[in-house]
Amino acid sequence: MGYNGVDLKYSISIGKIYSIHYFEYMSDFSFEGEMHNFWEFICVDKGEVGVTADKTFTVLKKGDIAFHQPNEFHSVQATGETAPNLVVISFECRNPAMDFFRKGIFKIDDLERNLLANIIIEAKNCFSCRLDDPYLQNMPQKQPLIFGSEQMILNYLEHFLIHMIRRYSAPVAPVLSHPAKAAKLKSDDEIFSRITDYLENNVSTHLTIEQICHDNLIGRSQLQKIFRERCGMGIIEYFSRMKIDTAKELIRTERMNFTQISEQLGYTSIHYFSRRFKKETGMTPSDYASSIKAMAEGKF
Fold first, then answer.
1. Which position among 21, 87, 205, 252 has the lowest Cβ density within 10 Å, counted as fewest Cβ atoms?
2. Are 87 and 45 in contact (CB under 8 A)?
3. pLDDT in tens, 131-180
4. What is this structure's pTM?
5. Maximum distance among all Cα pairs of the chain, rounded to whole angstroms
């Protein structure tokens, strides 16, 4: 008996990738705008920005995403309140399903956030350029390429768009073949979310793992297991990186000097803060500030 194969059809198919950016903007950054014949979206990872699409102005906050259709004029500017972090991706897609996103502003969920993070990771594997240069127009590929990196970018981006359309237009309850396992995953997700909120609320203090466990009524081994499964690191390393991310935002806001930032985040001295900052970023705080300013002014 012969087998008949099935030709699977694409609902969303990405043609070209034009840009993949992860921006860390100054609090006064402004991009005058542009128009091009391919799609682009901007997603706020931290802070907030003002986005113009044709003649419509909208303030986007953390987790918001705005789509710009082909040949739509768009610009972006920081609001002055925070120093925002943004994901900006532009691409070619000619499928009719993209009509869903025309003039659309949405909010991403946890899965979509993870897919965007994976796109950024693969872009670093694929392209030999910085992803935080706002004036970059071409993305040279690394040679040799890491196997599968280009395809992974396409897969993640197509998954991201399909999931968003499904979630907003026809939500379907998942079938739980292993309810006990699914319940545990949900419980771990809730614990992770609760503790990351706790860390954000205490980013200015010095926390030990014992204090975190005590305040959140959780065992040390369970806590470490959850963070290693979700982040690939222990909770103290995660908290240390959170502090440095906060420091970067404060530096870009330009309302405090380095000593004040060090004290604000609970470091024992400016020298220890500088060492930790350089270990995490590869730059001193002053080098980081100069680099961001140079890119914002188009002089990088």
1. 205
2. yes
3. 887 777 788 888 888 899 999 999 999 999 999 999 999 755 554 555 55
4. 0.82
5. 77
